[in-house]
Automatic annotation (TrEMBL):
Name the record gives this protein: Prepilin-type N-terminal cleavage/methylation domain-containing protein
Organism name: Clostridium polyendosporum
Keywords assigned: Membrane, Transmembrane, Transmembrane helix
Origin superkingdom: Bacteria
A Pfam family the protein falls into: N_methyl
InterPro entries referenced in this protein's UniProt entry, alphabetically: N_methyl_site (IPR012902)
Lineage: Bacteria, Bacillati, Bacillota, Clostridia, Eubacteriales
Transmembrane regions listed in the UniProt entry: 31-52
Length: 163
């Protein structure tokens, strides 16, 4: 051993008495713990992403249901105010309020939604010049992931129920 005048024991680290080795890389256990934590965090983010996507789809479908309901209400008021009969027609991708002369209002539906107007006359609702709906039935809106909303219409009393 070396003789140290300072008595600070630094000679131990400079000499060959105690060998220090450097750690190169990670152990297998450290890598496994890191990967497990990473998988837990990523899975929570993925589940939050799918929940948010479902929430967006639900809100979008509710918006289209509200727009169709407001089109029905608007058609009743339009017919009463203008003393004209009209009809709500469902064609591919659009639902429109039409009189004999022209289209009054059109709602464009994206292709991922299927809208069916189930009445006596398929895909048509008839509104009288006094603002009463002549045909009873159900408007069914089927969205992505088989979500469905129904608007039930009863004639003459303007009863509209959204489920």
């Amino acid at each position: 051993m070396h003789f140290n005048n300072n008595n600070d024991f630094t000679y131990l680290f400079r000499s060959k008495c105690i060998k220090t080795t450097r750690k190169k890389g990670f152990t297998l256990i450290e890598l496994m713990v890191y990967l497990c934590i990473l998988v837990i965090i990523m899975s929570s983010f993925m589940s939050i992403g799918t929940m948010y996507k479902r929430y967006e789809e639900k809100k979008e479908m509710e918006w289209y249901v509200e727009q169709i309901h407001s089109l029905i209400t608007y058609s009743e008021l339009f017919c009463k105010a203008n003393d004209k009969s009209a009809r709500i027609v469902n064609t591919r991708g659009t639902i429109s309020l039409e009189t004999e002369e022209r289209k009054i209002k059109t709602l464009i539906i994206p292709p991922k939604y299927n809208v069916y107007i189930n009445t006596d006359i398929d895909n048509i609702l008839v509104i009288s010049s006094k603002g009463n709906i002549y045909t009873s039935g159900t408007i069914s809106i089927k969205g992505p992931r088989d979500k469905q909303a129904n608007i039930t219409i009863q004639p003459d009393n303007s009863y509209v129920r959204v489920r």
